[in-house]
Amino acid sequence: MSDVKKVVLAYSGGLDTSIILKWLEDTYGCEVVTFTADIGQGEEVEPARAKAKDMGVKEIYIEDLREDFARDYVFPMFRANTIYEGEYLLGTSIARPLIAKRLVEIAKEVGADAISHGATGKGNDQVRFELGAYALMPDVQVIAPWREWDLNSRESLMDYAKEHNIPVDFAKQSKKSPYSMDANLLHISYEGDILEDPWVEPEEDMWRWSVSPESAPDKATYLELEYVKGDIVAINGEKMSPATVMEYLNKVGGENGIGRDDIVENRFVGMKSRGCYETPAGTIMLKAHRGIESLTLDREAMHLKDEMMPRYAKMIYNGFWWSPEREALQAMIDATQKTVNGVVRVKLYKGNVSIAGRKSDTDSLFDESIATFEDDAGAYDQKDAAGFIKLNALRLRIAAKKNK
Q1: DSSP H/E element including 181
Q2: What would the mean pLDDT of 154-170 be, rounded to a whole number?
Q3: Which residue numbers are catalytic?
Q4: Which of 176, 203, 232 is the last residue of a domain?
Q5: How confident is the model over 311-370, as pLDDT tens digits?
Q6: Are residues 239 and 113 in the same domain?
Q7: Cα 195 versus chain centre, distance
Q8: Is the CB of residue 337 less than 8 Å from the CB of residue 302?
Q9: C-beta of residue 132 within 8 angstroms of C-beta of residue 10
Q10: What is the pLDDT of residue 172?
Q11: Mean pLDDT over the full length of the chain
């Protein structure tokens, strides 16, 4: 342990990471550099600076990474219509590569020997943080206190804080949600407490970003989303940055009861885990992106993307964002998006998102003269279908005759 002189800690300013900060200093006898990222969690990050200063930290990094997160991680993921196990929009998973990247970049800047995080030894996040760190800084040392110390309960953490004079807002702790939560621009998640029983329905007052579908307005909300190369660039004619797009869709989606989900998922470490999620922006983005692709993307390109998407989702979920296979697949996905340009009109109503219209002046592959049920003026010769069907039926007919 004596070879560790400086550690960069992913620091929120909360109880757990404040204890980790002190524990690192005492256990490793090292200097701790703190890194706090604003990725749209909806809470002030600046108080972390004051807390770190109070604990004697000399090098403190507080960074607004909302645009980086939306532009370089969330938007590329949604070009693939990514969803894990048919339900999860990967809100926690996609944030970890960015945090890992900045951890190792700061470690290089300050000459640190190691990085540290507050992920537990039971979860996926430890894998995501560390796979990302090793991919970007192969020789980095990672310190994961939850895999080393014996502070395995809330009571033991509070005792440690009291013993080492770590400032704790006890009033805030007493009012703290019973759930383990993670939030960013894409989602907020809830785990633990009554959710550990997959038969128990979540309490209504648990949800923070959305009204219940039953309480949503009785009048539908319509939005027009403009796409350029697979990314939303404007809403209702107003140009917006990626982070602003997500903030707006979270607000409007939440007001209409959009984006709630209750999932039992298969963690990479081997266990099943029940979690609840609010993903208003992501739910709208997924539906709308498929809507514009349906109009502008070639059939076989679309089907190939759909076939590869589960593998792509698994790579992100398991922490392989910085792997060569994810980067290769991303290049293929991005190549398909060159023609994904146009406008989608979505209808939000009591928890549902539906497509109300789509158009592309430059890249639509929809030809009304061919698709019409009316007189197509010779644009499509229906007699051609007979040979097409017979050729496709040839192997079926041969097999049927043989079996008979």
Answers
A1: strand 180-183
A2: 83
A3: 16, 96, 125, 180
A4: 176
A5: 999 999 999 999 999 999 999 999 999 999 999 999 999 999 999 999 999 999 998 878
A6: no
A7: 21
A8: no
A9: no
A10: 55
A11: 94
**What's the number of domains the chain is made of?**
3
Which of 151, 176, 201 is the C-terminal boundary of a domain? 176
Phi and psi based region of residue 344 (left: phi greater than 0; alpha: psi -120 to 50; beta: remaining): beta
Q: In whole angstroms, give the CA distance from residue 294 to residue 310.
A: 19
Provide the strand spans (E) within 201-351. Answer: 221-228, 231-235, 238-239, 260-266, 272-278, 342-349
> Which residues sit opposite 9 in a β-bridge?
34, 116
DSSP strands (E only) in 287-401: 342-349, 352-359
- 133/126 Cα distance (integer angstroms): 11
State the average pLDDT over residues 212-240.
Answer: 98
Which residue range(s) make up the domain with 244? 183-297+340-359
Instruction: Give residues with Cβ within 8 angstroms of 238, minimum separation 6.
Output: none
Q: What is the pLDDT of residues 58-99, one digit of tens each?
A: 999 999 999 999 999 999 999 999 999 999 999 999 999 999
Residue 168 and residue 36 share a domain: yes
- Domain CATH for 205: 3.90.1260.10
SS3 of 111-134: CCCEEECCCCCCCCHHHHHHHHHH
d(CA 64, CA 39): 7
Q: Average pLDDT in the 262-270 region?
A: 95
Is residue 372 pLDDT above 80, yes or no?
no
